[in-house]
Amino acid sequence: MKNIVTILLIALSFTANAQEQKIKPTDLPADVFAFIQTNFKETVIKTASKETKKKTGLSTYSVVLENKTELAFKDTGSWKKIDGKGTPIPVSLVPTPFWDYIKKNYPQQEVTKIDKGPEEILVKLVNGTELVFNIHGKFVRVQKVEVIEKSDK
Questions:
Q1: Distance between CA atoms of 102 and 25, rounded to whole angstroms?
Q2: Which of 72, 94, 110, 138 might form a disulfide with 88, Cβ 3.0–4.6 angstroms?
Q3: What is the C-alpha to C-alpha distance for residues 31 and 37, in angstroms, rounded to an integer?
């Protein structure tokens, strides 16, 4: 019984810490909306949501596009994650030091995901390989290698 009460309290603390609500695309911050309009002209916003942390009052925004690309933005409006769900994202969104490294070491690959952490940035390639860079753009390591073979069927 004690374990159940503990689990319930933990679950309640997570839900009480942040509130997520669906919003209209037009309710996104102007810089977030402009970023999407500039970089993803070929698709439209399918869903948008805003999550506000109760302790800090800071909000993050999540967007899913019709082409299934998922975007996450900080309260400041800067992006923190772009996930093409296996589909290449625009090269213009890949920071130059990362793209230079990728062109040199993985010339046939495109980027499908970029996820900015506080100290490292994960970049996923079309073949499933995950590269980790530091926040200054220096390559750190290969985190995962996943070869995805395409069939000719």
A1: 33
A2: 110
A3: 10
